[in-house]
């Protein structure tokens, strides 16, 4: 069963919710074919900037993340424009045989951004993360440094945004199943389990 997901590595709730989704897939045993799509929360963000600190929202994210086994360290995080990050994920999609690679790359990027405090505006850091997650090194380098390849990937990022704009009611993360059912925002693991089982059943009718 195909599941399309719109998300952004700059979105902490995307990290939490994709983790819940993965747990639901494991709990239900539903066979899914995941396709990731880009949705930049702030396309005009600076390349690199200090990460805003404090506030009730960060405290809530940290608490909810801990329940899922995620260690949010906003004191380490560096705010970045995620356009090049999305290029790397798209390149992983093209380099993947079964859809697992882009998922692994995105999860590694979430962890690098929110837990390890790595600078995702640094091409060398992105290449290292991509390769460690399973990407071919030359593909990863091309994704973050080659001008012609960047233009191709940017077109895909733009197309993802245009497609998502027709589907997404409010904000990301957004999950769309083959049968047209969908979930968005900070969905619980239990809701995901119901979503997957229902969509899988509909797909068999």
Plain-language structure description:
- This protein has 205 residues and is an alpha+beta fold.
- The chain has one domain (2-203): 3-Layer(aba) Sandwich (Glutaredoxin).
- 55% of the residues lie in helices and 12% in strands.
- It is built from eight helices and six strands; from the N terminus they run E-H-E-E-H-E-H-H-H-H-H-E-E-H.
- The chain has a four-stranded mixed sheet, with helices on both faces. Strands 3-4 form a two-stranded antiparallel ribbon.
- Strand 5 and strand 6 form a beta hairpin.
- Helix 3 (83-95) crosses helix 7 and helix 4 crosses helix 5 (123-133).
- It starts with a strand and ends with a helix.
Number of structural units classed as domains? 1
Q: What class do helices, strands and sheet pairing give? A: alpha+beta
What is the element string, with H for helices and E for strands?
EHEEHEHHHHHEEH
Describe the sheet with the most strands: 4 strands, mixed
What oligomeric state do these chains adopt? single chain
